[in-house]
Amino acid sequence: MKAPTLADVARRAGVSYATADRVVNARGGVADARADRVRQAIADLGYVRNVAAANLSQGRVYRFVFVIPTGTNAFFLHLRMILGAVAPRLRLERTELRIEDVAAFDAPSLVAVLRALALSPPDGIALVGIDSPEVAAAVADLTAAGVAVVTLVSDMPDSARHAYVGIDNCSAGRTAARLMGLAHARGPGRVLPVLGSLSARDHRERLAGFRAILAQDFPQIALLPEFEGRDRAELVEQAVERLFDRGEAISGIYSLGAGNSGLARALARFEGTDRRPVVIVHELTPRTREALGSGNFDVVIDQRPGAEIALALATMRQISDRLPAAPIRPIIPAIIFQDNMPEPEDSALPEAAGLDHTTAPPGRQGGLT
Amino acid sequence: MKAPTLADVARRAGVSYATADRVVNARGGVADARADRVRQAIADLGYVRNVAAANLSQGRVYRFVFVIPTGTNAFFLHLRMILGAVAPRLRLERTELRIEDVAAFDAPSLVAVLRALALSPPDGIALVGIDSPEVAAAVADLTAAGVAVVTLVSDMPDSARHAYVGIDNCSAGRTAARLMGLAHARGPGRVLPVLGSLSARDHRERLAGFRAILAQDFPQIALLPEFEGRDRAELVEQAVERLFDRGEAISGIYSLGAGNSGLARALARFEGTDRRPVVIVHELTPRTREALGSGNFDVVIDQRPGAEIALALATMRQISDRLPAAPIRPIIPAIIFQDNMPEPEDSALPEAAGLDHTTAPPGRQGGLT
DNA sequence: GCCAAAATGATTGACGTCTATCAATTCCAT
DNA sequence: ATGGAATTGATAGACGTCAATCATTTTGGC
């Protein structure tokens, strides 16, 4: 009735414990015939190695690295903040977190970081994907070396990464289009897409999804040419200002990258009027929160970085533990209006929960006499 | 540099290992002065008991029970399905799941189930809350007996439950109102709320949130009296049919409970016309999926039962492990249009991930020779 | 049939906690 | 002071795995 141990496997396979151990831990030096018998016994018994016992025996510590772009991008700053907040808690679970900096949108420097990490490989690496053969090659080397590699936020489907943790960006773009269409009700309009860089897969996919639904279901809405703002607030601000100054009739803005504080500034001119365009942006940050609250933005599509980090960690741990892989589903983004803003994630006061379970409850055996 | 063990604590407190053990496991028979010294040493060293080692030593199996309402309610059927799907995987992690049936909206039978469970108490219980003093009393007895109790879907804030796992229903109602308002653009309208029962806290809260935002931001939308459909499709269908037959001008329907297949049938009469009201419902089920896809519903607010189950399990495990309680944040509901429907959760084919990590990768020590 | 190389078996000591038992000490009321 | 109770200490085995060592057997080439 209880779970089979490796000793059971060895017995069933008719080999010694030592041989079974050599097979499951890939130590080599086992004849094929024997190894197959062990594998068969594992399958027959449904043996799953007891990770707790394994970790206990070798005093294992999980070492995970998050490679995060530098710069003033509010989303990545938020990501760093959350990582900093969960790190102490994770240490209790024998997990060490490290953040490696990398220049944004920069394949060569990402490759350099990955190559450096390969020298003393951690157990897992989470990185923001960049479409580039060199990065893919570095990833392949890491996975070959037994490192769990997970792409975060933006995927690299053609690489050897074990899993992608993030939202379905195409679907997010379609959702934005649907909301934009809803808000235009039955009237016509002209919509401006603002993005960071077409070289980023996530931005490309969002734009494609947005376009597809607008074209399909909302023919009365015209699409202006997209603006590439490199995720930099001042560039976005200038560009939007210029359009307004030229008197362009803009009924909606879909900002699918970062740099939204610039957008908020550019929209200040509509304060108090009812002529502000419908504004849909990505990522809940202090700035976008504020703009939502004050009624300057309408919708925020948030990829829930906290959930992403949790899933990335769980995935890396699962791969490191060599457990049968659970299917990874995309993160479901939160669609946020001024009415359903969640608490900021840094308001995580452990004791605020008001409960402390660190001493045994009065269970079967009595307390004091 | 490594984590302190209980032996370290004992040494620091100047007591024997046995005494320290008696303190952390509440076995009793320790003089106050000594116990305090042990507790002080624990605090000084930041000792956290090694759960893996503890579970290993006693061959521990977590026993968790989900108490789920019976009936044809599609949401709860879905919840049961997901529980069935995760159960085998959890068994690998020494966790046993059981489902207990209970009549819906029925406090006495919930109390009976809880009392029965108390006879051989599991490690954790997740239940759908019902506001009733008797239920609260039963919950208090369970928590006093050391059982981790979590409310699911609908909370009981005044009970002794350890945590609530579910969405912020008030916020969800506000979100529905915002979407309804958006879809009404600047035109007037009349909106019908359909709910299961005002005795259910979650339904009450959604309705309150919905009302508040409509009143505050959309004065041009009139609110019809709400209909209580007991979550039963045929009742909902009849009631809505009757209203339409009477020629009521209805521009929007907010269905905040179950029974949406009845609603979909009642809306069939608008097929092909553009006079269908705006329809916002809760919970993604096969029926609401279909209605979204065919364009009969506009928005589904889904409380993501899979995420709820995962969080409930994690919470119960954490409480059972007597770890410092992490703050529990509400589940963020998914807002779903026809454009961003996620894969059904039962499409979870473990092997579909295409990866199997059950054998050691070629790590530090070489493979075959 | 011999030798080296390869494969296999047997065994042991961690890892940190829990449970249990038994011996030794302290405390307190009389 | 004495006896009984309460408290404390010491220790050992179990849990399942990993890493390591050493002894033994089998294999393959000649």
Characterization of the model:
Chains A, B: GO terms for molecular function: DNA-binding transcription factor activity; transcription cis-regulatory region binding. Chains A, B: This is LacI family transcriptional regulator. Chains A, B: It comes from Pararhodobacter aggregans. Two copies of one chain form a homodimer. By secondary structure, chain A is α/β, with parallel strands linked by helices. The first copy, chain A, has three domains: about 5-50, 434 Repressor (Amino-terminal Domain), CATH 1.10.260.40; about 60-165 and about 305-330, Response regulator (Rossmann fold); about 170-300, Rossmann fold (3-Layer(aba) Sandwich), CATH 3.40.50. In chain A, about 45% of the residues lie in helices and about 15% in strands. The first copy, chain A, is built from 13 helices and twelve strands. Chain A has helices at about 5-15, 15-25, 30-45, 50-55, 75-90, 105-120, 135-145, 170-185, 200-215, 235-245, 260-265, 285-295, 305-320; strands at about 60-70, 95-100, 125, 150, 165, 190-195, 220-225, 225-230, 250-255, 280, 300, 335. In chain A, the strands form two sheets. In chain A, strands 6, 7, 8, 9, 10, 11 and 12 form a seven-stranded mixed beta sheet that branches. In chain A, strands 2-1-3-4-5 form a five-stranded parallel beta sheet, sandwiched between helices. In chain A, helix 2 crosses helix 3. The radius of gyration of chain A is 25 Å and the shape is elongated. Chain A starts with 5 loop residues before the first helix and ends in a 33-residue tail after the last strand. Chains A and B meet through helix 4 and helix 8 of A and helix 4 and helix 8 of B.
